[in-house]
Amino acid sequence: MARSPSASSYPAESCYTFLIMSSETPHPEEAWQRALEWFQKQEMGRRKVELTAIIRPLYESLKQAPDIEALHRLYLDPMDAEAALRSSQSAYPENKHLWDLSRTRDVAYGLRLAELRRNSATAG
Fold it and tell me: What pTM was estimated for this model as a whole?
């Protein structure tokens, strides 16, 4: 899906469609890891603060997934993608460019995956 040059004119429906399409990736953990690495490389500044404001509630909502298998099921659930979009729209209603959750949602999943793996390693 080509992204228009003007992110502020990027329609919410396209964001939602992209979320659903990205949720169908055969190896979502790879996308989660790439997104997490991208986020960690971001310099501290306004953009990272805005992204964090979107990622944090998404990440908190993922704590309902008790294990990696449940995390995968949640990722494939279109209702989760829709809830993520609504969360972004609520946090930044005037900044449509922040509604493109193709990476921010994956960052939240990457954070939760890392947490589940750490918990599994310390429990085992």
Answer: 0.73
Share of the chain above pLDDT 70, in %: 77
Count Cα neighbours of 17 within 13 Å in the Cβ-side half-sphere: 8
Q: Which residue has the tokens 């990722």?
A: 75
**Which pair of tokens denotes residue 84?**
């993520």
Q: How many domains does the chain have?
A: 1
| Residue at 119 is within a domain | yes
Placement of tokens 């494939």 in the chain: 76
Residue 36 falls inside a structural domain: no
The pLDDT score that the predictor gives to residue 26 is 59
1 within a domain of the structure (yes/no)? no
DSSP string, 4-18: PS-GGG--HHHHHHH
Closest CA to 103 of 62, 59, 51: 51
11 in a structural domain: no
